[in-house]
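Request: Have a read of the protein record below and say how the chain folds.
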Amino acid sequence: MSVTDTSQGLTFHVSCRTLPMMSDLEPGRRERKKQATRDELMEHAARLFAEHGFDAVTTADIAEAADVSQRTFFRHFPSKEAVLYGHAHVLRERILTEFATRPNDESVVDSVIVSIRAIASYYKTHHEETFLQARLAADFPAVAAYARAYVQSDWEHELTAAIAGRMGVDPLADPRPEILSGAAFAAYRAAVRRWSAAGGHDTFGTLLDESLEALGAFRG
């Protein structure tokens, strides 16, 4: 940019560099703050659920423990069931990513089995979180209903679509993708129930493998 000093008749060439505006920086900062609040709500909810049980804890209790308003709680989670399963999307992406990376010449049944096994690695590294979910689902019908109707239903729907895409069929016209996906998650639920009944002491991956063996019947 050129600037002219009219009193001296001189022209100066000024180099201008565009600097990031504060508004450009805000989205990243806001997202980090939002995630930190979500993490804190999940942490306090898990502690309260573990100490008092699911039914005895309210969303107001969780908000108070996290030092936020109930309004803030509901900006992040629609219910206390949702905060318990706050990382459900992480498992969904693991399953779908694993399925998407399987070789095309592999049996679709084997691809599904490997994809469901991806859940086991998360359970191994997040034992406290996942066992709490399993225990609460076994003890409180509201938790079991939410896990089945929202969390697992979402996973199952997405995997059904992925299987249909691999097979090149319409899942509304061909029932096989939905049946295979449903069977895979039935195996997962059986493993979770056995794991919970054993007090979380058995290796979840082993129990899941035993359940998934039943899917071999679909190879024929």
Q: What stands out?
A: Residues 2-8, 14-23 have pLDDT under 50 and may be disordered. Residues 22-52 form the longest helix (31 residues). The first strand starts at residue 2 and ends at 5. Strands lie at 2-5, 10-13.
